[in-house]
Amino acid sequence: MNLRNILVPVGLAIVVVAGFRSYGWPGVAAVGGAVLMWALLHFTRLVNVLRKAADRPIGHVGSAVMLNAKLQAGVGLMHVVAMTRSLGALQSPENEQPEVYRWTDGTQSHVTCEFHNGKLLKWVLERPVVSPGMSGSDPGSAAP
Fold first, then answer.
1. Would you say 82 and 44 are in contact if contact means Cβ atoms under 8 Å apart?
2. Least crowded by CB within 10 Å, which of 60, 91, 102, 120?
3. Nearest-angstrom CA–CA distance, 11 and 14
4. pTM of this structure
5. Would you place residue 141 in the very low, low, confident or very high pLDDT band (cuts 50, 70, 90)?
């Protein structure tokens, strides 16, 4: 069980009691207003991230290499969705931990991310292998 699931409600109860003891019912109203504002700010951010992600294909990212460079261990899934502006393509069985998502770019490079309880544990960048016979199709190479 996550310790945050216990500490946040206990902390909120302590703040409400402190507001009541300091200022009475106006203190409770002030604390309640502050908590409501905090909740609305997080809800607004969530809705904005999901609205932007709804406009893009699932599992698509502009550049998998840039996503790989920006990722950090411990960031939340919502932060990664905000960076990619796309929902990841689920690779693991639904509702099982760890959750594995994949984002692919136009060159078929992809980043596979593993999340446990919504936090990024590890990720792997995989780039397509270019065979030696295809080197002539590279725009930077000159034909003999």
1. no
2. 91
3. 5
4. 0.74
5. very low
